[in-house]
C-alpha cells in the first residue's frame, strides 16, 4: 500500500529528534557599553604654509659667474647659491685701501706739524693762531681717513654681495637666470628658497565653535591644550602631531570664522607649501565616558537607537542620545547603562522580543611589543 503525503510527514516527524523541531534562536554578537577614555576632537580643512619663503635677489650688478646649487635640492643655511663676477669690486677695494694708506700718511704729517707748532707756542716763538691752523689740518686729515674707512667697509659689503648664499635652510627652486647673464637689483627673483621644517598649517574655525570652546574652558569642562593631527590628500594620517600656536584676534566677516595656526615638525619634507589637508584638533586630556561600538548604533526618523540583549536573552530596542564618534566607538549620553549588551552583528536577523543566542565580540589580540 502506497504511503500518502500525510503519512510521509508523520513518519518523518517520528524519526527526527525533538531538538530539530524546535525553532533555532538567532545567533548574534554583542558588546557591552563601557566607560572609555575619550579625547574630544573636531575636524577642519587647512592649508599648509611654509614658515619662511623668500625670493633670492642680486644686491649688486655683474655678470653671473656660477650657479652653485641643484634645483629642488635641500640646502643648508649659508650655502652658496650664486657667484657674481667680482673683479671690479676687488679692484675698487684695492683702490680704496691705497687711498687709506695715503690718508694715514697725511694724518701723520698733520700730527707732527701740530706737535711742532705746539712746542713753538710753548717757547713763545710762534703765534697761537699757527697752532690753531695745525690743529684744524690734523682734524681734516683724520676726517678724511674716517671717510675712506667708511668707503672701505661699504666696498667690502659690496664685494660680499657677489656671493649670494642661503639665509636659512630650505628647498631651493628653479633658477630664472643662466651663467653669463647680467644680473642686478632690478633683475627680479633669481630663484626662491622655501623652509619646510618646521611648517605651519592655518585653518578657519567658525566663531560659534570658538565661543563654545571658551565657555566650556571657563567652566573647566575642557582641556586648554590640544593636539593637532593632519589627514593628507591621499587619505593617510601624518605621523607627527602639532601644536596650535596662534589664534587670530579678528573674525573674517565674509565667512564668520577665526583663523588658527598649528606648527608641525617636517623633517622628511612630506608636507608641502600650499597643500590642502584635513586638521583634527584633539584634547590632550581625556575623560571617562560611556561608549558603544559604532556599528551597534542605528538611526531612523525617531533618532539613534540600539538593539540590546537583556538578562532573559531577549532583544530590546532602546532609544539613545549620542555624542561624537572616537576611534570606532560612539559616545552615549543617555539611554544606556554601563554593562548593557548591545548587538553589533546580526541586527538584521532580530526584532524586539525575540530570544537570541548571544555571543560576546572577540577581543582583538594584543599587539606584540619588543622586550627591553
UniProtKB/TrEMBL annotation:
All residue ranges annotated as the Multidrug resistance protein MdtA-like alpha-helical hairpin domain in the record: 93-162
Pfam families to which the protein is assigned, alphabetical: Beta-barrel_RND (PF25944), BSH_RND (PF25917), HH_MFP_RND (PF25876), RND-MFP_C (PF25967)
Span of domain Multidrug resistance protein MdtA-like beta-barrel: 198-282
Superkingdom of this protein's organism: Bacteria
Entries under InterPro entries matching the protein: MdtA-like_b-barrel (IPR058626), MdtA-like_BSH (IPR058625), MdtA-like_C (IPR058627), MdtA-like_HH (IPR058624), RND_pump_MFP (IPR006143)
Signal peptide: 1-22
Keywords from the named record: Coiled coil, Signal
The keyword Nucleotide-binding is annotated on this UniProt entry: no
Coiled coil: 93-158
Domain Multidrug resistance protein MdtA-like barrel-sandwich hybrid: 53-183
Protein's cellular compartments: Cell envelope
Family the entry assigns: Belongs to the membrane fusion protein (MFP) (TC 8.A.1) family.
NCBIfam families in UniProt: RND_mfp
Name the UniProt record assigns to this protein: Efflux RND transporter periplasmic adaptor subunit
Protein source organism: Paracoccus broussonetiae
Amino acid at each position: 500500500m502506497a504511503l500518502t503525503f500525510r503519512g510521509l510527514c508523520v513518519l518523518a516527524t517520528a524519526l527526527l529528534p525533538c531538538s530539530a523541531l524546535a525553532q533555532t534562536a538567532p545567533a548574534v554578537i554583542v558588546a557591552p557599553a563601557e566607560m572609555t577614555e575619550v579625547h574630544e576632537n573636531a575636524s577642519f580643512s587647512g592649508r599648509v604654509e611654509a614658515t619662511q619663503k623668500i625670493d633670492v635677489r642680486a644686491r649688486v650688478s655683474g655678470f653671473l659667474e656660477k650657479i652653485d646649487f641643484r634645483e629642488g635640492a635641500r640646502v643648508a643655511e649659508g650655502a652658496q647659491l650664486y657667484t657674481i663676477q667680482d673683479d671690479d669690486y676687488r679692484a675698487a677695494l684695492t683702490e680704496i685701501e691705497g687711498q687709506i694708506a695715503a690718508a694715514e700718511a697725511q694724518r701723520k704729517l698733520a700730527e707732527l706739524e701740530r706737535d711742532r707748532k705746539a712746542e713753538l707756542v710753548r717757547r713763545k716763538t710762534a703765534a697761537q693762531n699757527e697752532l690753531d691752523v695745525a690743529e684744524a689740518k690734523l682734524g681734516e686729515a683724520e676726517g678724511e681717513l674716517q671717510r675712506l674707512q667708511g668707503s672701505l667697509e661699504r666696498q667690502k659689503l659690496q664685494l660680499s654681495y657677489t656671493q649670494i648664499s642661503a639665509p636659512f635652510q630650505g628647498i631651493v627652486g628653479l633658477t630664472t637666470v643662466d651663467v653669463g647673464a647680467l644680473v642686478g637689483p632690478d633683475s627680479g627673483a633669481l630663484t626662491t628658497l622655501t623652509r619646510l621644517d618646521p611648517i605651519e598649517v592655518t585653518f578657519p574655525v567658525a566663531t560659534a565653535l570658538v565661543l563654545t570652546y571658551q565657555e566650556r574652558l571657563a567652566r573647566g569642562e575642557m582641556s586648554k591644550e590640544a593636539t593637532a593631527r593632519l589627514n593628507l590628500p591621499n587619505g593617510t594620517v601624518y605621523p607627527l602631531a602639532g601644536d596650535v600656536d596662534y589664534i587670530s584676534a579678528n573674525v573674517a566677516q565674509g565667512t564668520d570664522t577665526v583663523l588658527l595656526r598649528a606648527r608641525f615638525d617636517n623633517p622628511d619634507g612630506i608636507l608641502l607649501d600650499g597643500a590642502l589637508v584635513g586638521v583634527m584638533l584633539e584634547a590632550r586630556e581625556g575623560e571617562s565616558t560611556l561608549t558603544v561600538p559604532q556599528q551597534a548604533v542605528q538611526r531612523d526618523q525617531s533618532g539613534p537607537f540600539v538593539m540590546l540583549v537583556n538578562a532573559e536573552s531577549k532583544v530590546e530596542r532602546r532609544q539613545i542620545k549620542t555624542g561624537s564618534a572616537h576611534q570606532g566607538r560612539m559616545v552615549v549620553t543617555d539611554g544606556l547603562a554601563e554593562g548593557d549588551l548591545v548587538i553589533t552583528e546580526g541586527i538584521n536577523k532580530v526584532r524586539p522580543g525575540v530570544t537570541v543566542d548571544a555571543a560576546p565580540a572577540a577581543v582583538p589580540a594584543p599587539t606584540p611589543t619588543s622586550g627591553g
